[in-house]
Every structure is written in C-alpha cells, then in structure tokens.
Amino acid sequence: MAAIVQDAVEKRFTSSRNKMGYVKDLAESSDLTSIPSKYTYFNTFNEEDGIEVVAEEEKIPIIDFSLLNSAIPDQRAKVIQELGKACQDWGFFMLINHDVPESLMERMFVACQDFFNQTEEVKLECAEEDVLAPIRYGTSFNPSVDKVFFWRDFLRVWVHPQFYSPPKPSGFSEIAMEYSQRTRQIVRELLKGISESLGLEKCYIDKEMEMESCFQVLVGNLYPACPQPELAMGLPPHSDSGLLTLLIQNQNGGLQVNHNGKWVNVHASPNTILVIERLSNGKYKSVLHRAIVNNKTARISLVVAHGPCPDKVVTPVPELIENEIYPALYPGMTYKEELHSRLSNRLAGKSHLDPVQFTDESA
C-alpha cells in the first residue's frame, strides 16, 4: 500500500502545470514518505561524494575585514598575508567584522522566504527557461540536462550593473538593492587585499576586471526538509564561477567544503559571511563545495556572486605567468560566455573550469 501511495505522489507531482515540478510543493505533500526516484542522488553517483566528513575541529580560516583598512601597517600586512594563505590553502574563508548589518542580513532572509512562500502561480511568473534570464525561478540546477534532480528550489536575480527584482513580494526590491550594494563594496575591498597578496598593485584586479561595472547576481536557495536526506543532495560538489561569492545561511547548516580530500561542515555565527573564491592562474584555489539536506527543517542560503564586467575578456595576469613555472593555464573568455556555458550544462565538480580560469577564471 505504501508503494501505491508513493506512486500516486510521484505521478501527481510530475504531472503538475510545470513539467519539472518544484521541491517545496513536493516536500509539503502530506502523504510523502520517501523521495521520488529522480531525486535519488547517492547510490547513483559516488565520485567524490564518498569522501569522509571531517570532525568539527577542522579550523576554517577567519578573516577580519576591519583590519584591511587598518591604519596600523603591521595589522594590515598581517591580514593580507592571512588572506593570501586562505585563498591558496582553502579557496574559502569566513569573514567577520564586515560592514553588512545583521539586521539587513535577516531582512534579506525574510524577503527570500516570503518569495518562496508565495503561491506557485505567482512564482511561476518568474520561471524563465533562458538560463541567462535576469530574473529566474527554478528548481534543481538545470532540469533539462540534470541526470538526477537536486533537492533545491532557487531564485536567481541580476542586481548589477543593471538591477532587476521580482515584482512580488512587496519590499523585496528595496532590501535586495541595499544588500547587493553593501556586498559589492565588501568584494571590491577584498579584491584589493587579494591583489596585494598576489604581489600586484592594490587596485589591479578592481581596474582590470572593471569592477565598477561588475556582474553581480543574487541567488536565494531553498532546501526543504527531506524525508530521505541520506539519498538526496541539495547541490552536488561544484566550484563557483566569478571572482568572489559571498554566502550566508540560516542556522540549519548544510554547507560543506572540500579540504585536502575531505568534506568539512561549515557552521558560522549569524553575522559571518562565507567567501568562496576563484583567482590567479592556478595559484589560488577554487574550492569544491556542496549543499546537503536534512529531514527536520528547511535550509535557506543567500548567495551573491561577483564577476567582472560581463563583456570583459579575462586572461591570466601577465605578472603571474612565469614561463615554465607558472605558464598561462587558461585561454581568454568573456564572463558572459563562461556563465552561459556553466548554467547550460550539468554541475560536475570542477570540470567546467577546463576552458577557463584567470586571476580568476572568475570571470
């Protein structure tokens, strides 16, 4: 009987108005006891997902943002050294004492939750098929090519150089604009420190990547509670495109980063920003990370990805190319081209990096 009920759930779900179906609706089905087969990720893909999860004592780098503008030379030199080491050893760090008020972060969480709590009819007004649509509500990663669906619904919005926002819920636009402006300022300051850590001029990356016109994308991710979290995956192992990605998550955790071949759980206080980066002709790492799910409560993460000017052709920094020691690893490509390639295909570890990288492939 249980199998018959589950079968009915799957049929009802897959025959909904939107062919792909959305996870939130599925998760809230009162008769759902197990996940549909198309969401069974584990036991389907093994690859790097068999990697052991490290205990909590693994120490993730912490960068004190306030020291980047310290008037004390030794303090600033020390934090730039720490920044470079975090980029090289982890490709990931936690940012404290930044300029984004906790109240604004909380308001952004609420606005995102309010969007997902709207009726499916309202949300579907933003369900564009074009992967580069400036406002796009969707599920999984790219359902047209995903072999297995991921336990995730998302809202992706372009917020710079041109600002877009879904028409509903009320107030979303104002909060998203303020949040994107604040995070953009943080990224430009971080890039100055990263430039110096690479032995470049302070404003080298900011100028070369035309960050005044940077491409900034806000993504809200909803990972509902899952009846079989041991089988499902929120997002599989991947690394981000762009220069720097800032991420915050609610208290339910779920983010894991790969360090030295092992998965590390990431827990951060409410006012901590997580920074996932890609930079430097192979010298700095592009961290592999994933999102897991749980069976108790929904997880929300807010991601703000920052890339260079969309039409900027990105090539390795000449100063970082040392012939046979550090040859140019990646050919030039505009950020718009790289982003389209990334969003049109499946998430597959770091394989999407093959065509590009940079002082970032970031771009």
Automatic annotation (TrEMBL):
Coiled coil: none annotated. It comes from the Eukaryota. One of its GO terms (molecular function) is oxidoreductase activity. Keywords: Iron, Metal-binding, Oxidoreductase. InterPro entries: DIOX_N (IPR026992), IPNS-like_FE2OG_OXY (IPR044861), IPNS-like_sf (IPR027443), Oxoglu/Fe-dep_dioxygenase_dom (IPR005123), Plant_2OG-oxidoreductases (IPR050295). Residues 214-308 form the Fe2OG dioxygenase domain. Belongs to the iron/ascorbate-dependent oxidoreductase family. PANTHER family: OXOGLUTARATE/IRON-DEPENDENT DIOXYGENASE. This is Fe2OG dioxygenase domain-containing protein. It comes from Aquilegia coerulea (Rocky mountain columbine).
